[in-house]
Structures are given as C-alpha cells and as structure tokens.
Design goal:
The complex is a heterodimer.
Chain A: E1 10-16, H1 20-31, E2 36-39, E3 68-70, H2 77-80, H3 106-110, H4 120-134, H5 161-172, E4 178-179, H6 217-223, E5 227-229, E6 232-240, E7 243-254, E8 257-268, H7 272-281, E9 302-312, E10 328-330, E11 347-351, H8 375-385, E12 386-393, E13 402-409, E14 415-420, H9 425-444, E15 449-452, E16 456-461, E17 487-489, H10 504-522
Parallel strand pairs in A: 1-2, 1-8, 2-5, 3-14, 8-17
Antiparallel strand pairs in A: 4-10, 6-7, 7-8, 9-12, 9-15, 9-16, 10-11, 11-12, 13-14
Helix pairs in contact in A: 1-6, 1-10, 4-10, 5-9
Chain B: E1 18-19, E2 26-27, H1 29-34, H2 44-57, H3 61-64, H4 66-74, H5 91-111, H6 117-125, H7 138-154, H8 157-162
Antiparallel strand pairs in B: 1-2
Helix pairs in contact in B: 2-4, 2-5, 2-7, 6-7
Classes of the chains: A alpha/beta, B mainly alpha.
Chain lengths: ~525, ~180
C-alpha cells in the first residue's frame, strides 16, 4: 500500500499500529462494515522482502523514535519491538500459549501486583476462535498443564535430533515435555504453506507458514476495505472541544508535517511503550492525559525475565533444524507460583530452538570467552552437537516500573518515552533457580559441557493495564480507557500481570474481545 | 496473499552486500576489501585497528572485510545493521562509539611497551585494559566487535558452509540493502 494513499476526511475507526493486535482489530472491525484507517509508524514491508539473514533481520526491529531506558532490568525495547508493517509480530517466533487460570489473580491469591478484571473462562472462547482461524500446531493432550480449550487444528512440530536429545534429558530429570504449540503450519492450511523447518523465523517468515500479520489478518483487513498508511507516527489523540471524554481522531507526523485523521473511535494498537507515549502526549494545559486521571498511566511496566541454557552433547543434534521458537515445552513449574523459597512466579522452558552461529542469540555470541584460534573448533563442534533451551519467567507487577515522558524531544518536538524497569529479589531468585535447573537437566541428559546466557528481557507488557478500579488501572476489561467514551487500547500493554507465557495469543484473544465489544456498542 | 515457497528462490550470494562507491554495483565486504575501496567513515588507522582486532577475535575477519563492513554501516546510520543497536548503541551514535573504541585500542597498544594485539584482545575480553584505554567500556566494545566479526565471517552462505551447515534460505538476501 502506498504511503501516498489519500486519507479520507473521516473514518468509523482509526487503528494505530499494524502489528498483531492492530491487524486483527482492523480485520474484525472492517468485516462488520466499519470504515477503518490503520496508521503505521514504520515503513511498508511485504513477505517478499523478509530475507533469510540474521543481519538483515535487524531491520525489522524498532527504528522509530528512540526510547530512553533505565532500571536494573531494562526492557530492551529495540530488540523486542518491531518497526514497519506487522510490527513486532513480523519477527515473533510464533509461540502461541494460553495464560493459565492461576495467572489472572496474582493479587488476590498472592498479594502481588494486580488482578485481571476477567478470568480464563472469559477469554477461552476467543482463544478457541483465533486458534481455529490461525491454525496452531501442537498436541493438547500432551500438554497436561494446559487449561481447558479446543484441541489444536494442526499436528505438532516434527522432533528433530536436538529435540530428541533434550526430550531424553528432561525425561531423565523426571520432567514432562510436550510439543511446543506454535502458530506455524505443519501442513498447508487456508492458502498458507507448511513450514520447511530451516530456522529463519527470526528474520520474518516469507512463506506465510508462520502466522505473521502479513500472512493472516492484514490481507483480510485490506480486502474488507481498510486503508493502511505507513511512515505515519501518531503522536496524540484529539479530543472533542465540547466533550473531553470523547476523542475525535489522531494527530500524526508524516514527512515531517503534522496531519490529522478523524474517526468515531480510536484504538491504540501500537507497542506498549508507544501506546503509553501517545496517551501521555495527549495531555494539554487544560486536560490530563487520557487514562492518567489517577496517575496510573505507564505504571506496571513488565517484561518476562528470560535466559538460555546451552549444552554440547556427543549426539549429533543438528541444531540448525527446526523453528526459532523451539520444539518442546515444559510447564512443570507453572502451577505453584510459590514453590521456590525466596522466589515468586511461574516459569516455562521452551526447548530446542533452531540455532544460528551469529547474532545476539547465536551460539557464537553466547561464548565471548572463546575467541582467536579456539573459536572455529568451538563453532564447528556446536554446529553439530549443540542443544539449547530458554527459560521464560514471570515478572512481578510493580507500580514504580513506569513509562513516562522524557524531558528530551524528538526532531519533531515531541517528548520521547522513558521506560524504567527494576526487577525484584524474588524474580532474580526465580531466574537463578531455573538456570541452575536447566544446566542440571542438560548434564543429566549427557551434556559434556553447559553454559548459560545472561538474564534478558523477553516481551514488553503493561503500562496501560486493564482493571475494574479506575484508580488502579487505565482501561476497563474491554480496553476502553476508563475516562473516555470512544478511546481503546489493545495489545500486551493491557496485561495487569504477565504470567510466564509468550503474550501474542493472549493479546490476540483480548483484541478480538475488544473488537466484538466495539461492534456491539456501535450497533447500539 | 501470494504464497511463497522457499524452494522458489535461489540460495546464495551477497548476504552482506555493499554498494560500491561510484556506482560500480554491489560488492561483499570481502570484495570491497580486495578492491581497496576507500573508507567513508573510518580513518585508515581505525580501519587497520578494526582489521587487527577483528582478526584476533574471529580468524578470517580481516579478509572477510570487517573494516569495510563496519565502515559501510557506520557511514549509513539510517540503515545500520550493526548488532550494537540491540544493546543501547543507537545508530546515530555508533560512529562515535566505534571510533572511540578503535582509538582507545590504538592508544593502549602504543602506550604499553611490548604489548601485542593478541594481548590487547585478552585484556579487552576481561575488561582489564588499564588507564590508557579512554573509550567505551573495553569488555562491551570487545563483545560488539567480536559479534560484528562473527557476522562478517559466519553470517552468510560461505560462513555456514565453512561450518558444514546448509544455509537453506527461504528468501535470498538481495544484492543491495534497502532501508
């Protein structure tokens, strides 16, 4: 779609961002006859330019207005966010897991952070519906920890040698594994190809086997008549001069100029930091920022503390085979969030990721202590005998972790976002425990050497959290900003707590629920 | 949406392509070095230090064109592909970061009697370079430069083949990077 597309005078809905939440939202609203404009901050991308290269893949990561970061566990915005059509979902790995029932009430059950305003039962129909549309592969019966839900429509991923080696290791350690459920076609389905298991998911999947927005909801939205403009960075929502509880559209920067688009409803579907920035920037001399009437906007910023454990085995593990997400899942430490002394939270193991030698997650980069003449023998060994698996842990929602506006401004004079995030001693203890466990599992499985990567920030959550109490949240259970009649937020920024599973499936289910609510409200 | 199968595309070629100055077409960093293309961002001493450090960290980096790779990325911050951006070094500040690191390496090497390049790399790896290092944290600079060298040597088809790996691209990298 050309960036020169003429923007009409008025739309039924403006969707900010073309990532997973935005493309789904646009598809669902346009399917009901709403005139939709999608405003994407980044450049246009197509499947035909998702080149297989870890180096080229860096173009898919955030390149918009820089985000300032502080804290002892920074959110790593550049790595986690996306830039351009499809947003971060272009480079996401396709791990589509449901939150567990015990993820929705961490405040009332454990005194940690916030409860969700809804429970698993409220979301289940939306998980099931999206799962049918997208086509998740997996084995629901083998996931003995899985909450109630329809079986997966596609058979599980094949288990390549690395997965077989680690499956034996987990079994030897008394742990249960199941095929990792992924939004990746294991068979051709709905016009999308089957995966060829060459591990290029991180660079974006040009075949459409992995359910990125370019292969799923975005074409539907466009076919329904939605319009999409690129290189247009929304900087604030516009409010009705006679009714501060109502938005009339958005202001955006295009080619250095400030422009406006008007609509009956606005849905912010950008990444969590940018959604919060847009809302903060919408304050003026007369009005507080939407959602910040009780000083809650930007609070409860979260990430998933994560870390990768590596091992070298005598087995030929062929670690280049498979998908970037991994092959197996272990949720043995999910049900009891207080099982580990001094720690809090669930965690999961994503097991047997297809591995590459270079880039931030590559095995060459994982051993900075090896260089010079020792490097090539190590890489050659790892190319055939490496195994790796990633722990994804639960963050504790803390009000002090927050997205605010910086005193610094971008070239257009708009304040940039500042994201501060500290971890807690209990989260560090959880991560330390899991890393030690992972290395022990590898050793029990026959690894001749193990090592681990650093604690990293995987995913970005919170900042515009949903809740029942307007004094402790930004939106209601449908993502409608509490103080506003027609302004909504979608995406993982809504999560009041994050569980320990990858967020894309849940944010998609929430977006579908919001879309239905908007359509229902529009119908009166 | 058009369905694309990776078998449709040809695998291979210039995963690290550089557009040559003067409209000569596209070159890999290795080819750019072989043709002694002039540097746009780095000074000659900085380029030599990048080659020396890169080679000491990742053997093969010198002839693979580490200096020309860095020079291309640093002179095109609007489309920089350096891994540094993941770790807080924004593209707009990468030139200053890299030149400061390379200059600090030169200063340290010139100030410590009998210090070899390999010894300097050892000191960088352990963040124990001493007071002559006036630049970004040496360990951090080491980590990023080593990662860049890994990109140049092992991040394309020839690098994979050297490790006995199939590259198996879904979609081959074009001869010229696009922003």
């Amino acid at each position: 779609m050309s960036a020169q597309l003429k923007v009409s005078d008025r739309y039924d809905a403006i969707v900010v961002g073309s990532g997973m939440a935005g493309s789904l939202m646009a598809a669902k609203l346009s399917a009901e006859g709403l005139r939709v404009l999608i405003v994407e901050a980044g450049p246009e991308r197509t499947l035909k330019e998702l080149y297989s290269s870890q180096i080229w893949a860096r173009k898919l990561k955030w390149r918009g207005t820089p985000v300032e970061e502080s804290g002892d566990h920074r959110i790593e915005h550049v790595f986690n966010a996306g830039y351009g059509t499809g947003g971060s979902a272009i480079h996401h790995y396709g791990v589509w897991l449901r939150l567990h029932e015990n993820d929705f009430n961490v405040a009332s059950e454990h005194g940690m952070g916030l409860d969700w305003p809804i429970n698993y039962g409220d979301l289940r129909p939306y998980y099931d519906e999206i799962q049918h549309e997208i086509g998740i592969s997996g084995d629901a019966k083998a996931e003995k920890w899985r909450p109630a839900g329809d079986p997966y429509p596609l058979p599980p991923l094949p288990l390549f040698p690395q997965g077989q080696t680690l499956k034996k290791a987990f079994t030897a350690a008394g742990r249960h594994t199941a095929p990792l459920p992924v939004a990746i076609n294991t068979r051709p389905r709905n016009g999308r190809a089957a995966c060829s298991y060459d591990g290029w998911c991180d660079a974006g999947c040009p075949t459409g086997a992995l359910a990125n927005p370019l292969a799923t909801y975005l074409p539907v939205a466009l076919a329904n008549g939605a319009q999409l403009i690129h290189d247009a960075e929304v900087i604030r929502v516009l409010r009705d001069a006679s009714n501060a509880a109502k938005v009339t559209g958005v202001e955006y920067i295009y080619a250095g100029e400030r422009r406006r688009a008007m609509a009956s409803k606005v849905v912010l579907c950008a990444f969590p930091v940018q959604n919060a920035r847009i809302l903060h920037n919408s304050a003026d001399d007369r009005l507080v920022a939407p959602g910040n009437e009780h000083d809650q906007l930007g609070r409860y910023l979260m990430t998933h503390p994560a870390g990768t454990v590596f091992g070298l085995f005598e087995d030929d593990t062929a670690p280049h085979q498979g998908v970037s997400a991994g092959a197996l899942l272990c949720h043995d430490h999910y049900a009891d969030k207080q099982a580990i002394k001094g720690a809090f939270g669930s965690y999961q193991w994503l097991i047997a990721q297809a591995a590459k030698p270079n880039d931030l997650l590559g095995y060459g980069t994982s051993r900075p202590d090896i260089y010079g003449a020792a490097l090539e023998p190590f890489l050659t060994k790892a190319a055939s005998h490496l195994a790796n698996m990633t722990m994804v842990g639960e963050d504790i929602p803390q009000a002090k972790n927050r997205i605010v506006l910086s005193d610094n401004k971008d070239p257009n004079g708009v304040p940039v976002a500042h994201a501060s995030h500290d971890t807690s001693a209990q989260t560090v203890a959880l991560w330390d425990h899991a890393m030690a466990e992972g290395r022990q599992i590898m050793s029990q499985g026959g690894a001749i050497e193990t090592w681990q990567g650093p604690r990293v920030a995987m995913h970005i959550l919170g900042g515009t959290v949903m809740g029942k109490d307007p004094q402790r949240s930004v939106t209601d259970e449908y993502g409608r900003v509490h103080s506003m009649e027609n302004l909504y937020v979608a995406g993982s920024g809504l999560f009041p707590s994050g569980g320990a599973v990858n967020p894309t499936f849940t944010l998609s289910a929430l977006a579908l629920r919001t879309a239905r609510h908007i359509v229902s409200a529009a119908a009166g | 949406m058009t369905e694309i199968n990776r078998r449709t595309f040809v695998t291979g070629a210039t995963a690290l392509g550089i557009t040559a100055i003067g409209g000569l077409g596209t070159l890999t960093p290795r080819q750019a070095r072989a043709q002694s293309l002039p540097f746009a961002a780095l000074e000659q001493t900085q380029a030599r230090m990048a080659e020396g450090l890169g080679e000491a960290m990742v053997p093969g980096a010198k002839v693979a064109g580490i200096a020309h790779y860095l020079d291309w990325q640093l002179s095109h911050p609007e489309s920089s592909l350096l891994m540094a951006k993941y770790l807080g070094v924004n593209p707009e500040s990468q030139l200053e970061f890299y030149t400061a690191g390379l200059d600090a390496a030169s200063a340290t090497l010139n100030s410590v009697a009998d210090m070899t390049l390999e010894q300097l790399v050892d000191a960088m790896a352990t963040d124990s370079v001493g007071p002559h290092w006036q630049g970004p944290p040496a360990g951090f600079f080491f980590f990023l430069l080593r990662a860049d060298a890994l990109d140049v040597v092992y991040g394309d088809v020839s690098g994979y083949e050297s490790l006995g790996l199939p590259y198996a691209a879904h979609l081959d990298v074009p001869s010229r990077w696009r922003s």
